[in-house]
Amino acid sequence: MKKLSLFFAILIFGLLSCTNEKPIPEGALAQGKEFALQAKKALGGQLTSALAEGGTIYALEYCNLEASGITDKVSKETGIKISRASDLNRNPDNGPTDDQMAYIQKTKQFIAQGNSPEPEIKRLNNKLVGYYPIMTNGMCLQCHGNPGKELLAATESKIKELYPADKATGYGANELRGIWVIEMTDDLFNE
């Protein structure tokens, strides 16, 4: 009987410890947004410059060579892991995990109901992981819009050349194009 009682005590303690996850630190969602905006500004600024310098095809070629490096540079500068993910990715490295896909699908449904997209933060593998929506605008549609409409034939051809497995066209304005994924640790919020 004592062994059975000890077994149940250990079982109950184990179950309680599993549910006692650390709370999300206050300000973590906002801090993650700052990192996402920093990455967006760095990438968007470079793409805007490339567009101004050589047009859409030049910007597409630039993005093909430099986009991942720009994101990596911001990650190194901040000490935070920053990446992008999309269910309709152009770069095969930007495919979503199951959890990211669940957020993307939920957010698309939320937008379809007339709501603005909301970022989300959670704990995954002892890290704080934030998802921040990337919405399309007019500039995005030059490379991510509808073929024969915003996406010109020459641009579509270059996309097929650079990204044979591309899934990232057919977007309209104000649609969820993907997400910024920001991974932080609790020590960022310890004072």
Describe this protein's structure.
With 191 residues, the protein is of the alpha+beta class. Helices cover 53% and strands 15% of the residues. It has helices spanning 2-19, 28-78, 98-112, 138-144, 153-162, and strands at residues 81-85, 120-124, 127-135, 176-184. A four-stranded antiparallel sheet has the order 1-4-3-2. The chain starts with a helix and ends in a 7-residue tail after the last strand.
The share of residues in extended strands comes to 5-15%
Shape: globular
The ordered H/E elements are HHEHEEHHE
The largest sheet has its strands arranged as: 1-4-3-2
- How confident overall, as mean pLDDT? 91
The number of helices is 5
SS-based class: alpha+beta
In the predicted model, the low-confidence regions spanning at least 5 consecutive residues are 13-17
| Secondary structure: number of strands | 4
Helix content: 40-55%
Radius of gyration equals 21 Å
Biggest β-sheet description:
4 strands, antiparallel
Cα separation of the termini: 48 Å
